[in-house]
Amino acid sequence: MTVEPLRGRIGGTRRASHRRDILSKWAFMLPAALLLAAVLAYPLLHTLRISFSTFDLASFSPTEWVGFANYAAALQNQTFQSSLIVTGVYLVLALPLQIVLGFGIAYLMNAGWRGRGLIRALFLIPMVVAPVVSGGIWKMILDPLWGVVDWFLGLFGVSAIDWFGNATISMVSIVLIDTWRSVPFVALIAAAALLALPKDVFEAAKVDGASWWHTLWSVSLPMLGPIIAATFVVRWLGAVKMFDIILATTNGGPGEATNVVNLFIYRQAFQLLKFSESSAMAVIVLVITTILTFVFLLGSKSLEDRL
Amino acid sequence: MTATAERTRERVGDIPRVQRPTVGRRSRGERTRIWSGVIVCVLFLLPLVWMLLTSFKFQRDIFTTPPTVFFEPTITQYVAAFKNAGLGPKMINTIIVALGAGILSLVAGAMAGYALSRLHIKGAATIGVLILVSRGVPPIALAVPMFLVARTLGITDTHITLILAYCSFVIPYVMWLMRGFFLSLPKELEESAMLDGCSRMGAFFRIIVPISAPGLISTFIFSVILAWEELLFALVLTSRKAVTVPVAIAGMAGDTEHGANWGALSAAGMLTVVPVVILALLVQKWLIRGLADGAIKG
Asked: What are the Cα distances from residue B267, in Å, to A97, A207, B85, B89?
C-alpha cells in the first residue's frame, strides 16, 4: 500500500505522532483495564488476602495473618476432597462424551439436503437455555412419580428409575443434563470444522481403498486434532464452573454424590460463613484450574504445530 | 434447485458449501444420515417442547399418568408465576442487568479488543493468554470478595453491583471475540483516515465501528445472553430488590417435591428461554462463527 511512503513525507513530526499513536492505542485499553482491575484483579487479590487470614464476622473483614493455616484446614477437609473428586468424575465423564457426541452429531447435521439450515438453527436452541432452566426442565422430566421419561420407559416394562436417587444414577443424570445443553455447542463448531476439511484427501483415501474406519482414524482425526483440542478447551472452561444445573436438580445430593466443588465452596462461604476457609478452597481450585488450562492450551498448541 | 435450498445456502454463508443436494437419488447411507440427524434434533428439542406444553396446562393436566399431551390450554401458570412468584419485577431486573452489563462490556471490551488487534508490542500476546485463562477463574473465587466489598460499601442488592460483577466475565469474552473480528479488518482503513487528520479515536468511532456493526451487534447479543443466564453472582449479590429470574427459577426448582410448582417453573422457564432463543436465531450465522472463533483463534 501507499501508506508507508506517505507517512515518511510528514518527516520531523513522525516520531512524535508515532508516540502519540502508541499512547492512544493504550487509551483504548483503559476502560477495560480499569473495570477488570476493579472486578477481576482486585477481588482475586482480596480472596488471596482473606485466604491467609482469620475472618472477623462482626466487622466482616479479614483480621489476623495466619499463613497457610486455612489451606491446611481446607486440604484436610474430607468433604472438600470429596467435592474435588466429584468434580473430577463429572469432568472425566462429561467432556469426552460431549466431544464425541458433538462431532458425531455434526457429521449427521452436515448431510447435504435442504433441511440442513433448519436443523442447524434448531440445534442452536438448547445451547441458549439458561443452565438453571435446563436443570428445572430435566428435574420435571426425570421425576420418578410424574416424569415423562419414567412413564415412557414403563411402556417397555422398565420399572421407575429414581434418577436423582442414588449416587451413581444422580451423577449420570447430571452428566446427561449437561450434555443435553452443551453438545449443540460442540456440534455447531464441529459442523463448521468438518465442512472445512479438504475433500480431495478423502477422495484419495477412497481411491486407495481405505476403509471407513481407517479413513476416520488416519485421515479425519489427525486433521481435526487442533479443532477437537480447541473445542475441548472451551468446553473445559465452561464445565469447571458447573453449579447451576446441580443447584436446580440434586442440590449436591444424595449425600455428597454430586456436590461439585463450586457448590461446596458456595455453601461454606454463604451458608456457614466460613469466609477464610472457603477463600483458601477457591484459591486451590483456581490454581488447579489454571494449571490444567495451561496444560490443555499447550497440548492443543502442540497438536496444531504437528500439522 | 428450490428457492428454500438457495436461501439456506445463503444463510450458511461463509461455511464452505457441500455438494449440491441431489434431489431424489440418495444412497441408503445418505438417507440414514439425514434421518438420524432429524431424529437426534427432535430428541434434543423434546425437553423444551415438554416445558412449553407444561407451561400452558392446568394443574390437573400436569400430574397425570400417562402424561397428558392434548389438553385445554390455559395461561394460569403464567399468571401464577407473575402473581405468586413476583416474576414481573424480576424480569425487569434481569433485563436491566443484562442490558447494562452488555452495553458496558461492549464499549470497554470492543475498545480493548481493538487495541489488542493493533498494538504491536509483546504484551498483546500475554494479554490474549490472560484473557483465555481468566475464563477459567471459578466465579466463587470472585463472589466472596465481591459480596464482602459490596456489603461494606452498602451496595448489595443493586443493579449496578450485579452489572459490574458480570463485567468480570463478559468483558474478557467481548475482548476476545472483537479482537478476532478487528484482526480480520485491513489496517489501511483507519490509517488512511488518520492521514486525513483524524485521530485514532476518531478513526475508530467513525470508520471501524460502523464497518464492524454486525460483529458488534452479535457480540452484544452473546454478552446479553451470558448475563441473562447467570446464577451464582445473582444469588450472592442480591436479596430482594435486584433479584433476577435465574435466582427465582433456582428457588422454584429447589422446592419442588415431586412437582409442587412445575407449572410456574415451566412458565418462568419459557419466559427466560423465548427471548434469548429469538435473539440467538436473529444472529444465527454470526453466533456460530463467533463460537467457532472463540474456540479456535487461540
From this structure: 31, 56, 11, 15
b/e burial code for range A104-140 (CB count within 10 A of at least 16 → b): bbbbbbbbbbbbbbebbbbbbbbbbbbbbbbbbbbbb
Tell me the per-residue pLDDT of B137-170, one tens digit each, with 9 for 90 and over.
889 999 999 999 998 888 989 999 999 999 999 9
Closest in A47, A110, A270 to B18, CB measured: A110
A157 burial level (CB within 10 Å; 0-12, 13-18, 19+): exposed
CATH number of B87-296: 1.10.3720.10
Residue A5 touches chain B, beta carbons under 8 Å? no
Tell if the pTM clears 0.95, that is, is over it: no
H-helix or E-strand spanning residue A65:
strand A61-65
Instruction: Name the CATH topology of A71-306.
Output: MetI-like fold (1.10.3720)
Residue-wise DSSP of A121-187: HHHHHHHTS-HHHHHHHHHHHT-TTT-HHHHHHHHTTPPPP-TTTSHHHHHHHHHHHHHHHHHHHHH
Q: What is the ipTM of this complex?
A: 0.87
Q: What would the pLDDT profile of A186-199 be if each residue is shown by its tens digit?
A: 998 888 888 888 87
Question: Any CB–CB contact under 8 A between A178 and chain B?
Answer: no
Q: Tell if the CB–CB gap between B229 and A132 is shorter than 8 Å.
A: yes
- CA B167 from centre of chain: 14
Pair A242, A262: CB distance under 8 Å: yes
Which pLDDT does position B121 carry in this prediction?
A: 60
| CB-count exposure of residue A250 (10 Å: 0-12, 13-18, 19+) | buried
In chain B, where does the domain assigned CATH 1.10.3720.10 lie? 87-296
With contact defined as beta carbons under 8 Å apart, do B81 and B87 qualify?
yes
A283-300 confidence digits (pLDDT tens): 999 999 999 998 998 888
